[in-house]
Design a protein that fits this description.
This protein has 490 residues and is of the alpha/beta class. It folds into 3 domains: 2-220, Aldolase class I (TIM Barrel, Alpha-Beta Barrel); 240-322 and 470-485, Leucine Dehydrogenase, chain A, domain 1 (Rossmann fold, 3-Layer(aba) Sandwich), CATH 3.40.50.10860; 326-467, NAD(P)-binding Rossmann-like Domain (Rossmann fold, 3-Layer(aba) Sandwich). It has helices spanning 11-21, 46-53, 76-87, 105-108, 126-132, 150-161, 178-182, 184-187, 208-214, 239-249, 264-273, 298-303, 322-333, 350-361, 373-384, 449-456, 464-485, and strands at 2-5, 27-31, 58-62, 93-97, 111-117, 140-145, 168-172, 192-194, 225-231, 254-260, 276-281, 295-296, 308-312, 315-319, 342-346, 365-369, 391-394, 411-414, 437-440, 460-462. The strands form 3 sheets. It has an 8-stranded parallel β-sheet with strand order 7-6-5-4-3-2-1-8. A 6-stranded mixed β-sheet has the order 10-9-11-13-14-12, sandwiched between helices. α16 links the parallel β19 (437-440) and β20.
């Protein structure tokens, strides 16, 4: 169930939020601690007013203290009186922290949500904390923690597996905790919380519409296949919208979630804990995942980078759809074949490796430039050893870290993250002559500073959204085969 957490300071605005989000929610969490003190006298009729906005909504009353992430600064005795009133004012549920006595819920019929919040991290004893929270039969244990790593997110899912017989809500706040807000059924949670667009009530809240339409919470079942995109950062990724959209269009019982990952080892632990049937890999883990793969395609071996990992009966298999995704839109704009074309390749990470392999396999002449020249030389050496048709060298730098000479090239390709969110130009020193094809694989936004500058100079441009679409389509076919036929044909 999706509960809208209200953020308004007045009751009329609370009801407006409920009305605006009613299409995507089953319940409302009234955050009374966010209300202006002059509005508190209206709490006793608020539950009924919420149901008038949309019949059938459950109403949860919360008055959160500052120590627990709320904004209540009044007297504690007054807060307790208000909580008791909520339990007798038609609220279906009332949130009480672990140290509070039980209010008169038996007479009112309200369910008590016994909560504990850790705003700094994830305690090691999650299962015990949750199981000891309820004071009376029928209470729901709610533990909201703040995972600081992928390993701590794994701990949340492991703890949830051991709490199946206890009515509970176990979730992670902040960016590492986002999957726990989506995978409500997988965690055994009775509900999840969301905020109106642009008005987040807690770190990591998604909107009700995103949970309902993008992640299709109402359709989750025990048979649902889970997929993910993993990286750091990850919030910008368009992959969830793409893959979930296609799953929904084709009626496939699968869901694709974003996962912030700080280390590769716990990523694979999480993949087993959920379990994931497959996942997309983005910056900076495309090389790191290789060590934990049981199998890999020739494209992965050559590029020494993997952007797609698939579960198979014999272990995790790595594929690289970046190669196909990169070449497809480039072929559409080139007048001549790639063979013999001179290319300036910007970057020396996992994406650069895949792009370099793709270019060399078509016989291009590649010069690599990277702000850390030693990384460029290392990549050039690796690519040269692949035995492909093209040639590769390094564009050396001058004393101030820029190119010692501005080369004349046919194609410029940016594989760095510079330009993401519209910030920065990876090669401000490069002077476009107007004949180049300029390709930026950054797709957030498609019109990066590099693309804008190149287009202004008269260059033909290829934006990152075109590569994204091509590689995502190849990924999707692999995921679809797993979700519908039990395994990928790769």
């Amino acid at each position: 169930m999706i509960y809208l957490t209200t953020t308004a300071t007045t009751i009329p605005r609370v009801l407006q939020q409920v009305s605006e989000q009613a299409s995507w929610i089953e319940g409302v969490e009234i955050r009374a601690d966010l209300l202006d003190p002059t509005e508190l006298s209206g709490l006793t009729t608020l539950a009924r007013a919420v149901r008038d906005c949309s019949s059938g909504l459950k109403v949860l009353g919360t008055i959160r203290r500052e120590a627990d992430g709320g904004r209540w600064t009044g007297e504690e005795s007054k807060r307790r009186i208000l909580l008791d009133r909520l339990s007798r004012a038609g609220f279906d549920l009332v949130d009480l922290e672990s140290d509070l006595p039980t209010v008169d819920a038996e007479r009112s019929g309200a369910t008590i949500v016994r909560s504990l919040h850790d705003l700094k991290g994830t305690p090691a004893n999650l299962e015990r904390l949750a199981s000891t929270l309820p004071r009376n039969p029928g209470e729901v244990a709610k533990v909201a923690v703040t995972p600081q790593s992928t390993a701590e997110l794994v701990a949340i899912f492991r703890a949830a597996d051991r709490l199946r017989d206890l009515p509970h809500v176990l979730l992670g706040m902040g960016p590492f905790g986002v999957p726990s807000r989506i995978l409500t059924r997988r965690l055994g949670n009775m509900l999840t919380f969301a905020s109106a667009p642009g008005e987040s009530a807690a770190p990591g809240h998604l909107t009700p519409r995103a949970l309902s339409e993008l992640y299709r919470l109402a359709s989750h079942r025990d048979s649902t296949r889970w997929f993910a995109v993993v990286g750091n950062p990850i919030a910008h990724s368009r992959s969830p919208a793409y893959h979930n959209g296609r799953f929904a269009e084709e009626g496939i019982d699968a869901v694709y979630v974003p996962v912030l990952v700080d280390a590769v080892a716990p990523l694979f632990e999480l993949a087993d804990a959920l379990p994931l049937s497959g996942f997309s890999v983005t910056i900076p883990h495309k090389r790191g995942v290789l060590a934990l793969l049981s199998q890999m395609g020739d494209d992965v071996r050559a590029a020494q980078a993997c952007n797609t990992v698939l579960r198979t009966p014999s272990g995790w298999r790595g594929v690289n759809t970046d190669v196909i995704g990169f070449l497809a839109p480039l072929d559409e704009v080139l007048d001549d074949p790639l063979r013999g074309a001179s290319v300036l390749l910007l970057g020396a990470g996992g994406s650069a490796r895949a792009v370099g392999y793709a270019l060399l396999s078509r016989g291009a002449k590649v010069s690599i430039w990277n702000r850390t020249a030693s990384h460029a030389r290392a990549l050039a050496g690796d690519l040269a050893g692949l035995g492909v048709d093209g040639t590769v060298d390094v564009l050396e730098q001058g004393s101030e870290g820029v190119s010692a000479s501005a080369p004349t090239v046919d194609i410029v390709v940016n594989t760095t993250s510079v330009g993401m969110n519209g910030e920065g130009d990876p090669v401000p020193w490069y002077h476009f002559r107007g004949h180049e094809v300029v390709y930026d694989i950054v797709y957030t936004p498609p019109q990066t500073p590099l693309i804008v500058r190149a287009a202004h100079a008269g260059c033909r441009v290829v934006t990152g959204d075109r590569m994204f679409a091509a590689q995502a389509a190849a990924q999707y076919e692999l995921y679809r085969s797993i979700a519908t036929a039990g395994g990928p044909d790769v």
